[in-house]
């Protein structure tokens, strides 16, 4: 039931570190210090062309990444490769990613070719900037999707994020803003950077500059030396760290078979002092959460967050969850907030991972429901069919279509397929993430869904629940593809059950 680390969430977060040289430290008074203050202005003038980094999650080394800048006529090619290993339920999954980015001397994107291999499954994404638009081709297990994205002005690849300060100049108080194409979210997003000088002695690897990166909904802090090379990066409240290493140290990860911490047994499982008996029947739950900020927990029609007036929020706050009454939903009384057609339309869209318009998805949905079915009937039938026909396996999938064909997957896979089926029938649906109680274990990170039936209704196509039981604690997120809240909570949250019935 563990929620997966979204492929591109990891890849984007872990590959913000871009090109640099293989060194352990630099002299702040080197001949390049003045150049870095003014900015090198062109990739041809960068004093570093290659770098190796170790990738750590919760202080456990999970992989490495490598970047290299090569000249290509008047332009440049940025090559990268990375490998990550993640262990869940004593099973280790390996993710390999290679990228080839063609960029102009000012880092603006010309084209990119990304290849990802995960558990013997392949995903390739190609992009080309052409006539004020980005033309994208995505190939997931031989299923090809073509999309165009309009662009205004220059657009950059994510590899430009850590190179931009060196290009523009490292000066105290300097601010930079530019547009980056986010492959994971299939959208153009703005990056905002602010440079500040490290006070006192230089940090690790002579880090003398701090760069605050606001990217979409992510906040990543990085540190650079006097030449502008990023030597350290921290994301997800410090849980995710990328640090400059020499080639030998970085690649030792491949040879070492050291036991990793288990994402479920060591990080994801949140035990409670009081056991919850028959959680699937719970209609009401009240818990005390500690160790995290209450902003990580969603507030909606089924879930309330109560923060004490005195004291620090991290020291404890209460969450109450009430499961929905299906009868009231059918009568249009299920939610206090009704959304307009425009706000709901995005939850009907087809995406590269939720192929709403694909013939196989539409045909399967129509086989499950009848023409006479109400929207509520359709939701219940789709939930039941998905739970009954998709075998629960710790196997990740790139898309809903792949889940439909393989008939297996974990909770994220169940939720992807259910969402695609529901949307194909015109029912606005979104994927949500959070914690759910597993009997005799405790709370586990999990993914389920919400469908709009005269109000948002929580359903679980993995556990065959419509509505979801009250032990489903939803995490706050502005996007259904955002799982950063999960990563921020892992290993930190403590839960005490106060009441349930």
Chart the SSEs and their pairings.
Blueprint: H1 7-14, H2 33-38, E1 50-57, E2 60-72, E3 75-88, E4 91-103, E5 109-118, E6 121-129, E7 133-140, E8 143-150, H3 164-168, E9 175-182, E10 187-197, E11 209-215, E12 218-224, E13 230-235, E14 240-245, H4 247-255, H5 263-268, E15 284-290, E16 303-306, E17 317-322, H6 326-330, H7 341-345, H8 359-368, H9 375-389, E18 391-392, H10 400-406, E19 408-409, H11 411-424, E20 429-438, E21 442-452, E22 456-459, E23 473-474, H12 484-489, E24 494-500
Parallel strand pairs: 18-19
Antiparallel strand pairs: 1-2, 1-14, 2-3, 3-4, 4-5, 5-6, 6-7, 7-8, 9-10, 10-11, 11-12, 12-13, 13-14, 15-17, 15-24, 16-17, 20-21, 20-23, 21-22
Helix pairs in contact: 8-11, 9-11, 10-11
Brief sketch in words of this structure:
This protein has 501 residues and is of the alpha+beta class. The chain has twelve helices and 24 strands.
Number of helices: 12
Low-confidence sequence ranges: 1-33
Radius of gyration: 24 Å
Portion of residues within helices = 10-25%
Class by alpha and beta content: alpha+beta
For the largest beta sheet, what order do the strands appear in spatially?
Answer: 8-7-6-5-4-3-2-1-14-13-12-11-10-9
Number of strands: 24
Biggest beta-sheet profile: 14 strands, antiparallel
The residue-averaged pLDDT reads 83
Q: What distance separates the N and C termini?
A: 23 Å
Strand content: 35-45%
The tally of domains stands at 2
Shape: globular
From the structure above, extract its key features.
C8orf32 fold, four-stranded antiparallel sheet, 24 strands, 501 residues, 14-stranded antiparallel sheet
């Amino acid at each position: 039931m563990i929620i997966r680390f979204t492929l591109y969430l990891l890849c984007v977060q872990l590959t913000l570190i871009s090109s640099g040289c293989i060194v352990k430290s630099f002299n702040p008074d080197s001949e390049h210090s003045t150049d870095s203050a003014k900015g090198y202005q062109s990739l041809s003038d960068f004093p570093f062309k290659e770098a190796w980094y170790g990738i750590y999650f919760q202080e456990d080394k999970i992989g490495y990444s490598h970047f290299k800048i090569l000249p290509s006529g008047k332009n440049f090619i940025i090559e990268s490769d990375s490998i990550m290993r993640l262990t869940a339920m004593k099973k280790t999954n390996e993710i390999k990613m290679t990228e080839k980015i063609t960029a102009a001397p000012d880092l603006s994107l010309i084209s990119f070719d990304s290849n990802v291999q995960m558990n013997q499954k392949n995903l390739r994404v190609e992009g080309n900037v052409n006539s004020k638009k980005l033309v994208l081709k995505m190939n997931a297990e031989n299923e090809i999707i073509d999309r165009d994205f309009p662009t205004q002005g220059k657009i950059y690849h994510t590899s430009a994020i850590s190179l931009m300060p060196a290009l523009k100049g490292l000066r105290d108080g300097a601010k930079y803003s530019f547009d980056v194409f986010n492959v994971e979210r299939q959208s153009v997003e703005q990056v905002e950077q602010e440079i500040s000088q490290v006070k006192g002695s230089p940090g690790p690897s002579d880090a003398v500059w701090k760069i605050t990166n606001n990217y979409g909904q992510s906040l990543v802090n990085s540190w650079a030396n006097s030449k502008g090379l990023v030597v350290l990066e921290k994301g997800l409240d410090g849980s995710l760290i990328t640090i400059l290493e020499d080639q030998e140290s970085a690649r030792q990860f491949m040879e070492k078979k050291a036991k990793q911490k288990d994402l479920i047994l060591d990080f994801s499982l949140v035990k409670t002092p009081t056991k919850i008996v028959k959680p699937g029947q719970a209609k009401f739950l009240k818990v005390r959460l500690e160790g995290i900020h209450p902003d990580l927990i969603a507030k909606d029609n089924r879930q309330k967050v109560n923060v004490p007036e005195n004291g620090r929020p991290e020291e404890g706050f209460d969450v109450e969850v009430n499961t929905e009454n299906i009868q009231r939903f059918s009568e249009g009384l299920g939610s206090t907030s009704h959304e307009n057609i425009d706000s709901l339309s995005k939850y009907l869209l087809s995406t590269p991972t939720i192929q709403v318009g694909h013939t196989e998805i539409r045909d399967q949905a129509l086989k499950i429901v009848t023409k006479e079915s109400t929207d509520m009937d359709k939701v219940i039938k789709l939930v039941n069919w998905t739970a009954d026909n998709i075998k629960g396996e710790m196997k990740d999938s790139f898309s809903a279509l792949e889940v439909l064909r393989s008939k297996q997957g974990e909770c994220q896979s169940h939720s992807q397929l259910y969402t695609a089926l529901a949307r194909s029938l015109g029912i606005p649906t979104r994927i949500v993430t959070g914690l759910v109680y597993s009997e005799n274990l405790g709370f586990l990170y999990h993914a389920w869904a919400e469908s709009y039936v005269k109000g948002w209704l929580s359903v679980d196509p993995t556990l065959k629940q419509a509505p979801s039981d009250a032990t489903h604690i939803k995490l706050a997120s502005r996007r259904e593809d955002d799982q950063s809240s999960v990563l921020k909570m892992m290993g930190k949250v403590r839960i005490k059950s106060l009441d349930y019935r």
